[in-house]
């Protein structure tokens, strides 16, 4: 799945009201057992719409979260709004003008979000915590900036399953599904 954070809708990251959860999940069940108060990482919220898993979504001004359930890749374009970076990440300045990024919302600790933080920051933290709650087998978190070719090639591009990899001659995901569909239909017809 590819989630775009640079164009969040007004509803993304907003918690569901307790009695209007579309699906009773772990978070809402735990909340009901605790007297109606859920821990922030258990609280169901509206996730942003997913984008196609293709390189077409890699926008220079974008901040994307790509996940396959086993790894979470955060990709930052070269022209990302600095306020968005501050809302989504904790930035630590290193020597020689370099910076280290840590994604907000990685733990259930809500102390990383203060009252001074923006509404968008709170919504992003809720979304990250919800994605993490849905991926219990997450093994790797990688933050990549556009232009870091080795990291993009190793971690990001394999997750973009809808792209055609012309160098290897592999099929795109849609082409593979069409091929399987044709084979099944041929088998049924014969």
Tell me what you see in this structure.
The chain has 190 residues and is α+β, with helices and mostly antiparallel strands. It is built from five helices and seven strands; from the N terminus they run βαβββαββαβαα. The chain has helices spanning 26-33, 82-88, 119-134, 149-156, 173-189; strands spanning 2-4, 50-51, 63-67, 71-76, 89-93, 99-103, 140-145. It has a five-stranded mixed sheet with strand order 2-1-3-4-7, covered by helices on one side. The chain has a two-stranded antiparallel sheet with strand order 5-6. Strand 3 and strand 4 form a beta hairpin.
Short description:
It contains 5 helices and 7 strands.
How far apart are the first and last residues' alpha carbons, in Å?
Answer: 37 Å
Largest sheet: 5 strands, mixed
Q: Strand share of the residues?
A: 15-25%
The topology string of helices and strands comes to EHEEEHEEHEHH
Mean residue pLDDT: 76
Structural class: alpha+beta
Oligomeric status: single chain
Shape: globular
Which characteristics define this entry?
5-stranded mixed beta sheet; single chain; 190 residues; two-stranded antiparallel ribbon
Set down the secondary structure blueprint.
Layout lengths: L1 E3 L21 H8 L16 E2 L11 E5 L3 E6 L5 H7 E5 L5 E5 L15 H16 L5 E6 L3 H8 L16 H17 L1
Parallel strand pairs: 4-7
Antiparallel strand pairs: 1-2, 1-3, 3-4, 5-6
